[in-house]
Amino acid sequence: MAEQTDQQTGERIPTVIADELHIVYRVHGAKTGKGSATSALSRIVKRGEERGVRKVHAVKGVSFVAYRGEAIGLIGSNGSGKSTLLRAIAGLLPAEKGCVYTNGQPSLLGVNAALMNDLTGERNVILGGLAMGMTREQIRERYEGIVDFSGINEKGDFITLPMRTYSSGMAARLRFSIAAAKDHDVLMIDEALATGDRKFQKRSEERIRELRKEAGTVFLVSHNNKSIRDTCDRVLWLERGELRLDGPTDEVLKEYEKFTGK
Ligand SMILES: Nc1ncnc2c1ncn2[C@@H]1O[C@H](COP(=O)(O)OP(=O)(O)OP(=O)(O)O)[C@@H](O)[C@H]1O
Fold it and tell me: Fewest C-beta atoms under 10 Å: which of 27, 195, 208, 212?
């Protein structure tokens, strides 16, 4: 339906809307000060604060609209809130204030995406496919493609070995290949490209471009400015949880590189 409207009117279709989004983590059991009498007293006096709970305000009032067909890079220093923002878009973290709307099913592909270490790569392809909502039939059809794309079998029959025998790069490649086998409405990739070798990075970038053409929206978190430049046409720059810049890749990266001194 949505695609038809797109073709008929040429209008851009929003896929993700973040409106003044705030995300706060609560860390339980964290000490709020040394075990002194004064800190105990101040804890009692600060009545509004839950005891032993520290709050981390990771995303602060972020607003943007993402459209179908866009590939958006998320950049910023360590701890600036990039992964948190992705997890919130995926619906894995509740908003403290503001909200995030998504049109379609968002899928988050992180380097920690859950695959079973004791199962073979083969079983994980099937499980991963089922978990993404593919049918057994679709998985059977795409199985060869997934294994070929991952390149896991290039150096021997590794796909029939348990995942725990894979190097971290091999495991990351398989995760990316499984996720990329499906056409996603909103695909979010957290640093996945950084783990593969250069040849695999090139293949992944190509696949990201294809996914965009298939009308989805792709978000890519990366510390590799080249990967961002090669795959994204728009960049959101987060710093200390705030959206510092949102614009065309070249413009934002130029400012970011000035900031980081690169
Ligand atoms: N599970 C958690 N509990 C509490 N605080 C957290 C948690 N995860 C992240 N944070 C905090 O939230 C802030 C943002 O972290 P986040 O992982 O989103 O940053 P990032 O930009 O993805 O960083 P990096 O580039 O290092 O991956 C940081 O201050 C971090 O300490």
Answer: 27
**Which of 152, 173, 169 minimizes the C-alpha distance to 161?**
152
Q: What is the reported pLDDT for 2?
A: 39
Give the nearest ligand 1 atom to 84 CA: 18
A 10 A CB-CB count for 160 gives 11
Nearest protein Cα to ligand 1, atom 18: 81
Which residues are 217's β-sheet partners?
A: 186
**Hey, what are 5's tokens?**
């409207």
CA torsion sign for 78, 221, 75, 246 is negative
Q: Determine contact, residues 185/15, Cβ cutoff 8 Å.
A: yes
Per-residue confidence (pLDDT) for residue 137, from 0 to 100: 95
Question: Whole-model pTM?
Answer: 0.79
Strands 242-248 and 234-239: antiparallel
Residue 241 alpha carbon to ligand 1 centre in Å: 9
Work out the angle at residue 224's Cα, subtended by the Cα atoms of residues 219 and 245, and round it to the nearest 5 degrees: 60
The identity of residue 176, as a single letter, is: F
